[in-house]
């Protein structure tokens, strides 16, 4: 069959370059296809024909011969091409055809053929058997086509907007039951629709269809939101919004706003919401600064003190490493970039110069908070132990937090040495990093020195020892990340799996080094390139597939480790316009029924079953490795084990054959598949309540084997603890050993509840909210994992809980704390563009709150007594103004250079659209509360100055 497809492509290309007419080409293709009768093979032929023609059109714009080829292919009976084949291929090639006239020509050809067939869109443009996932994928591509058509200058030679709008409308008409669509596809389509509605003024019929789809997708994803409508760009947006009214007073030390932002940057560090993404980190500081009324020195003092407060609190809980690395290694860099951004903006608008000594003034204020600083010292001392300006003993200087903080600021050129000496005498003039000193001693530059530590010539022990030295020196952290991240990406692009596997192995084994990378480098980019390497690597061309598979396995374990360690639930990543998915890594524990597998997967499963669990097998040969994609093997391993254990129970294979098969998986050739295998076995042991000794034995054999990668135990640890904490496990002799084994990789987990009470589970988010607000009210650093809450309850329920807790705090006079806390929960934290990798499946809360939750909330406020109405409206207005003000400044910060990938064509702020939509909704709403809120917003100088065009 492969040779036939190759012939189809060759004949098509040869016919075109030979100048053959469409009829002559049809005759040639028909001859090639004459012996193909299997429906599935004919499908492949049709796809190949369309792909070949469209790839030619990507190089030869508006060619009438190729257009005739497409038309004739659909209209000629001997050829297996249906119109939906053309639609699929065209939408797949949209990103490669850069000529608008060509895209318009193909769109119009599709529309003409559709209307000439006299069938509905379903049956013509979309096959009757199309899956929900495939249909949504096509719709997402059609949305992309329509979006870029608005970016293309108008021309008399094409009307791409009109033709792409018609095509999208017809595809939307094919939507039926979407309940079978995957969450990832639903989320991806929702994001595409949401962005299109925000940035493009669409025709009414298309907008109505998309609004309907948006509502359907939102309901399927668990919320009943209506998204913000399109709005004009922030006309006459003021650079410095008013800082009065509902933005509230600013205390001398705003620990709440700062600590919430710092917590988000650190907890989301591996995603586009965190510290590893430079532009996002700076945008957070810019938004915070612009909505505050602070001078620059005071603001810098708040930034540093907020981070130190988090460090002090986390150090008490034994989690100080990452925070100390953040405060000493990352915050100075972010503040330096933030200051540079302010200087650039000031120069652009010819405003007053930025205070170049702001950070030096700020650190003087910071050093007056002696109690807070003392909590960060290696051994907590009294205030008198480190008096201001008093020198310490020589041997303690290197361990003093004050010493390290001043050294970090001096090294980052944020503070001069004389000013630092006024705060801490005896400081050296230079603070060289261990990395630069080691590189100098080796006689090489830093880049070559770092890369040499990860080369195939270096032993893993040497690499781990190197990482251990570097992670203990915060001055080396940024340098390590700035070299290792590009090196990682280069090796993945070059498909150098040996070097890539070495880096992945080292970072997987040394988690502190991985944490450092996540603080200083865009880890989501590294994940995307690793996924691309896993997807593209061709084992058929390598000389030693066993070694290559082992290296690819290290990449898989690295990916699984990153996704688990940083709780990245989103399965979508991007490299420019290329979309990559991590679904197989999230679902590697899935056990598939044979009938649900495709024929190639069934054949692969049978081949591996025979190679591993057949007593007469000669083992795993190179041919089976070359013919199996690593992703396929990862996907099928849990099924392979489940089938083998079931065969042992049914006496189709004996226990020795089973154990022999398990032993294959303990070596580097296959042990990278064990995360999914162990999770599947734990699921089965839990389901059977330890009544299946074969499953228990295989599980414990794997976990107790010293060759089982430690990352497998780290990822499955909580699941293992939960299963073996069940009372039904107490009769197992191995239970203490399994619990001890689980606790050997990390410190012991707190006791795991085995309660099946759903009410207790669903009450956790409210308890987390209540505790976070209690911390804020008590002056402690609050922390709330919103993604975790939204994984347990719906968005509507979460907003209900949030409002009730905020109202309770406001009733005791804590409205300012409520404002800051709500702003943190609702405001955006990352760009929402097609090429962004958010790291979480949680939807944006602010548009849902404003357009789906507030209208119902206002109706309930109408039923309250006057005093409660007044408090509720005041709180609601305060929250809305603060969240929208922070949001619009955050988005504006992203639109200014430097701009993250994917935002360059963004020409409207979503917050401006949300504010306009809210005003219109309130104006049309009936009820006293809606009127009161409308009047309060209209009277707010902050709201009016921030959105002057509304």
Automatic annotation (TrEMBL):
It is found in: Nucleus. Its main location: nucleus. InterPro entries: Mediator_Med5_fun. It comes from the Eukaryota. Keywords: Activator, Nucleus, Transcription, Transcription regulation. The keyword Transcription regulation applies. Pfam families: Med5 (PF08689). GO terms for biological process: regulation of transcription by RNA polymerase II. GO terms for cellular component: mediator complex. Component of the Mediator complex. Belongs to the Mediator complex subunit 5 family. This is Mediator of RNA polymerase II transcription subunit 5. It comes from Sphaerobolus stellatus (strain SS14). The lineage of its organism: Eukaryota, Fungi, Dikarya, Basidiomycota, Agaricomycotina. The gene is MED5.
